[in-house]
Structures are given as structure tokens and as C-alpha cells.
Amino acid sequence: MATNLVIVESPAKAKTIKQYLGKSYTVMASFGHVRDLPKSKMSIDIENNFEPKYITIRGKGDLLAKLKKAAKDSKKIYLATDPDREGEAISWHLANLLEIDENEKCRITFNEITKTAVKNAITEPRTIDKDLVDAQQARRVLDRIVGYSISPILWKKVKKGLSAGRVQSVACKLICDREQEIEDFVAEEYWLLNAHLQEKKSGSDFVAEFYGKQGKKMKLSSKADVDKVLAQIEKADFIVTDVKAGEKKRNPVPPFITSTLQQEASRKLGFTVKRTMMAAQNLYEGVTVPGHGTVGLITYMRTDSLRIANEAISEVRSYIKNQYGDSYLPSKARVYKTNSNAQDAHEAIRPTYVELTPAELKGSLTPDMYKLYKLIWERFVACQMESAVYNTVSVDIAAGDYLFKANGRQMKFKGFMTLYVEGSDEEEQEQNSKLPALSAGDSLIKKELKSDQHFTQPPARYTEATLIKTLEEKGIGRPSTYAPTITTITARGYVSRDKKQFVPTELGKVVTEIMAGHFNDIVDVAFTAKMEQELDAVEDGNADWVKIIRTFYGPFADQLKKAEKELEKVKIADEVSDVICEKCGRNMVYKMGRFGKFLACPGFPECRNAKPIVKETGAICPKCGGKILEKKSQRGKKYFGCEHNPKCDFMSWDEPVSKEKCPKCGGLLLKKNGRAKKIVCYSENCDYEKKI
Fold first, then answer.
1. Would you state the pLDDT for residue 692?
2. What φ, ψ does residue 197 adopt, rounded to 5°?
3. What pTM was computed for the model?
4. Burial of 313 per CB tally in 10 Å (0-12, 13-18, 19+)
5. Which residues contact 90 (CB under 8 A, 6 or more apart)?
């Protein structure tokens, strides 16, 4: 009996959807793209309207044959790939390969993988959106032209394996420019002066900060400035001149979009962008939950829209009322304004079923999925809760001609902050500070005047969170590009990580300098942002992608010719280590490989010695007495192993403690960094542990 065929991108998604559609539907996965541009050459016909020459992806032949057979045996074919540009393009390629008429209503989309959403989508198929396909194709063609034209020049003039790209080169330049700002920064001295005061009746102490003279703000730039003020207020009375009491509201932040989810997961969970998107993809595609079957737990995770479906708002408002009470529920639902460039067909990222709480799902999710779901669920519920309210008080205190100020703030009603508070890239967080009851005319006891010297700080290096925020603010790239961009500039060795911050390498600086000197448009923020807007116009049906690329290509081709002719060969010296090559006696150098830095002999090709960078922990192996080293697995994950491996099989994911032995048995201690941080003994026969 012939069935209906539904084609999705991933097996996990296929499993979830199959459960909803029943026996009359066959659900198969395309495993992503089935057709693409070949890696070996540009494959863009520049002379023929930039026509891309696609090929079937290697290894997809058998899969394609199965899809064709299933399509032939089916009554109706539904293409249910992801609801974005990339998904539309995959459906278009599938339609071409399966010989589906372009006027056929074969395309279905859903923002969430729930029974209702899938069933509704099946009843409303549409034709493939050619504008969406053209928008994806335009970006693909443009990125291919830029990458495959500039990269060979970099290989020839700098070294093999390098690349340039429309978004990655701008991101790299931002990081290099920030490093230059830090290097050029000249610190300026400034002083803070605080008065430690006491209210006479209650005896309560508080601190007031120096503000200025005769009501005007004044900067203290040196010790001499401070001493001058101190001399003049040494015998002055500290009198309260003004007290302003008020109330301040703090509103919840909007639900997540892709970029804010990536930023918050970086700040709060320490996740890389790649790790965040992997966990989000799994939550979207579906998880088996006891009592519920296989369920898609969040809406589509590639979105820049803040829109929330009316049903979802009704559900969350009902949940807030039942769980927290009327005082936590605003009289009207909160509506968040979406950026004008956003694709409003999508929703914000939210849980599909608000009643499925993180606590209820914990046993069904991996640790990463649980942490991310909890973040998404709490942010979404909080975004529809009542504002937090503070009682505030601002006090002006005169000391002769000089003015000091004190500010107090006390939480009156926690509101949404009961559940969720947004993370911050700044170190300082808002804190409560209570002031004693003060009135104008009150005379205060001066207990101490304290001054501190400070220096202005250079701007901070970019982290993943702040880089994404900057790219988004400047209109560079789109939600789907941030993860691959960061992966590429790290993998190419253009930037390295110092803790969580990006530092440009010498190679990154050299390549960025070449790009700025010869391909300025590619690394120009304003030019790249304008190009993004033009590509978005293709999606809206308001621009012709071929015209956009033709306009770009003319000047770009001239820049290519000029660079080929004028660019001198650049030699980048490898960083020399103090490790001696045991085969030939030379000092080994640091090289960048697929999994990060490693040591190699500079005598290549005569001497081919290479080895990983050894990082000693200072701890001793409990099995053989050798040194325990910090190592990296093939996937790049940190672990700890014995220097005598493979002879000694000691291995641990937990960090050894080097300066302390187990007080019970004298053995090796390990530091566990999970939710309950603690130190435990390595020995199975010892139960010693202590909380950190």
C-alpha cells in the first residue's frame, strides 16, 4: 500500500515526527544537504550569471537512491526540512533530484516539533519559496567567490591552509583592532574619596562618595587633588542637604533569540557557541520523555524574532498564576519588539510545553541539554512575569563647599527575579545597599575619610559572548553564521584563547593586515553590514541576487589582480619553545594543527619529529610514580594521564590536586568540578571527600 513520504534533515527529527503521523506516512532523513558545491574547485560560472555547479555530496549516492525509490512508491511527498534559508535550499535540491514539479505544493514547515504543529503543517503544504532559496544561494555563491579567490593568494604569499571569508575576516579584524586598542592604551590616574559616616540617633554607619564642589561634578586626578579637598573639609561638618526617596522598576529581558542564547550560555554555563547549538538542536529535534513519548522540547533555535505565539503566552500566564500567584502576573501579556531585520515568520526560542519543567525532564536529558533547557525555560517564563521593584533613596551631603552622595536600594518585590536574572559581561553586579533613615538638616558623625588610587583600564578582549554581541550590533553575519565563524578563526590559528578571551596570533595579525591593505571592503564593517541587508532584501523578494553579486564582483576582481601583482611573500617565524628535539638537538617550535598547538622540529623535512605540548600538573601517578600530565583527547577534551602511557594506564577526567595528599590514606586527591564541587580521594578503598 502506497504511503505518503515525509523527508526531514535528521534521524532524530524523523523519529519524533513518525510518532505523530502514524502508519500512513513514511518518514526519512536526508542527513542534511544532499547536493553542494565541490570542495576541490570554486564551481561558480562567473561568465554565466554566477551560476553554481552543484554535485551530489560524496557518500550520499545510496541514500539518494533510497529516497528516489521511496518517492516513486509514494502517493504524496512532503519536504519538511528546517524552517529557514538553509532548510528551504535543502528542500529545493531534494525537489530537483526527486523530479518534483516546482509548482507542486510539497513544502511544509513547523516552528516546533509537536503533534499539533506537525499535523497542522501537513494540512497546509505550499510551494518551495524561491526567494528564500535565492537568498541562501546568494550567500553561498558570494562566500565561495570570496573564500576561493583570496585563499589561494594567502597560501602562495603566507602559508598553506589559510582562508579568508566574508564574516570570518571581519570577526578576526575586530579581535585584532581590539588588541591594538589595548596595546595603544595609556592608563590615566584617578582617585576615589569616600566618607565613612554615622547617623547619630541609630548609630548606623554608611558610606558616601565624593561628588564635587558647589553642586558640580569634579574629577580627582592625583594625590594632590585629594589632599586639597581633605585639607578643606578636615574640620567641616557633614550635613544632609537633600533626601530623595523613590521606587525603581526592573523589567524582565525578552525571550531568547539565537545570538542572546549563545551569549548567555557562554556567560552562565561556560558553553562554546558550537556546544550551545548542538544541545539546542537535540532539544528541538526531540527527546524521549517517560509518559510523553518523543517530544520536541524547544522551538526552532535559529531565529532573530522575539515573537511569541498567542497559545504559548496563554499557557505561560496560566502557569505563572498557578505557581507564583496573581502578584507575579502582569495585567497584560508582555510584547517584545523585534528588530526590523528579523525574520518574523519564526518565534523566539521557548519551551514547547511550559508545564514540562527542567526538574521533571532532568532524568531524560544529557547534562548539556538539561542546563540549556533550564536556561531557556526560566528565561521564557520570567519574560512574562511582573517587574522587580526596588525602594531607592538618594542623599546629598555637604561638607563645606564640597558635596558627597550616598545611594541606597532595597528590594521591595522580586517579581521575575525570583526565577531568572540575566548574566552580565561586566564584573560589577547591582547589589542592595541600605541607608539609615535620614532627613535634610541632619548632622552626621565623620568616622573616616578614605582615598584610593585607581587607573583607567583598557577595553577588555572579546569573549565568545561579547564578540557575538558586537557582530550582531554591527549587522555582521546572521544567527546561523556565528558558530562556524568562531570555529573557523580558531581552527585556522588566527586567534587563540586566553582563559575565555580571544587573543590574535601573529598569523592572525598578518592575515588581517593583508586583508585590510588589499581587500578593505571584505573587512570593512559598514560594507559587510550593507551587503547583509542587500542579501536580506533577496529573501523578501525585493532584490535580484545576480545583480548584487555582479555589482560586488567588478571591484573585487580588480583587487584580486592588484593583490596578486603587488603582495610580497610574507614569512612568519614560528614561536620557539625551550623543548629540545631528542632526535636532532634543535629547539622545537610551536605549530598549529587540527586540535590546537603542538610541538614540531624546525628541521622538517630532514627531521619529522612532532609531539603534543606537555603540561605538568605537579601531581604524582598513584600507579607507577610517574608525572601526571594534562592532555587532550582526539575531540579536544582535557584529561589527565601518566607520562608513561601506554605502559601505565592511569587516566582521569578530574584534575589531580598537586599540593595536598589524602589526610586519611595519603593517596592522590582529585578535584571534581560538577555542580557539587568537591575534592575526593582517588583510591576506591578510601571514602574521603570534602566540599570546595
1. 76
2. -120, 165
3. 0.83
4. middle
5. 9, 30, 32, 33, 34, 81, 82
